[in-house]
Queue: 3 jobs
Job 1
Amino acid sequence: AQVVESGGGLVQPGGSLTLSCGASGVPFDEYHASWYRQAPGKERELVAFITNTGDSARTVDSVKGRFTISRDNDKDTVSLQMNSLKPEDTAVYYCQIQGITSGYTIWGRGTQVNVSS
């Protein structure tokens, strides 16, 4: 199985980006998904989580009200919509999936997000 992120880039403060995550080799409805980020010199931190069915999702306090995690069952993708971006959101963003029955954890290689004027 492989996890691939896309959608990163450079954006000005106050701007928006949408990150996408796709996983191959595993059924879409058999894993929970999370977005993490790691800024230079800092530890990797959880940003958002969504269950396999999409019926439950949450974001951490630092991005609450600005970031939204969602799943698209037609496209088999997990997205992170990021609005009102701040310079402190600059980081490499990683998608992680967790198998429900098999218990696997798979990480993507990450996508860089830079928020700067």
Job 2
Amino acid sequence: QVQLVESGGRSVQAGDSLRLSCVASKRAFNALAWFRQAPGKDREIVARIRWNPGIEYYADSVRGRFTISRDNAENTMYLQMNNLKPEDTAVYYCASQWGYGLGVPDFDSWGQGTQVTVSS
């Protein structure tokens, strides 16, 4: 099973930018994704990238503000988050999958999460 480690989360002001990173221990997936979970809410997908080719998916709430990318050589995924809003506040998780689907059960391995807090 692949181990996933996220980093980059911190407290920022509304309108700021932030980049999250997720490093995978090995190339044992077909896609990586970012999920987030705010207090009292369900975990939701933010973006996903299929590794080869690099097909991207974005949730409507972040499309145009967030960009997902990957570094094939380093088995690393990034999430560039621009124009952050208070409603983006959540714990952000990295997840891997072999299959398809965008729901939580469709993913096989999860990181521990990194906190992003956006103040108004």
Job 3
Amino acid sequence: QVQLVESGGGLVQAGGSLRLSCAASGSIFSINAMSWYRQALGNQRELVATITSGGNTNYADSVKGRFTVSRDNAKNTMYLQMNNLKPEDTAVYYCNARLVGRQWELEYWGQGTQVTVSS
């Protein structure tokens, strides 16, 4: 069964740090672009960061300089290092990836992990 599983969310005070992980499992040949999205209560889901298979990255303006996205292709895992967290970063964080199998390529979503930043 192919799936994405996030981990690393939690409760942190403003100014603190968290590291999220997103691991892909199952019969996967490769992974193309991987992204982190977040959705705060009452808001639409928004793109936070993207990393290509070659390691090129892109960030939302609201997280530039504070968040760093990376990936370990050998482990089929993507990370999001979040520093200097702010209350407005509170949201459910989702990973998204285009996974490639033997004769398919599909977009997958993880189940989400809650990040709560207290002031």
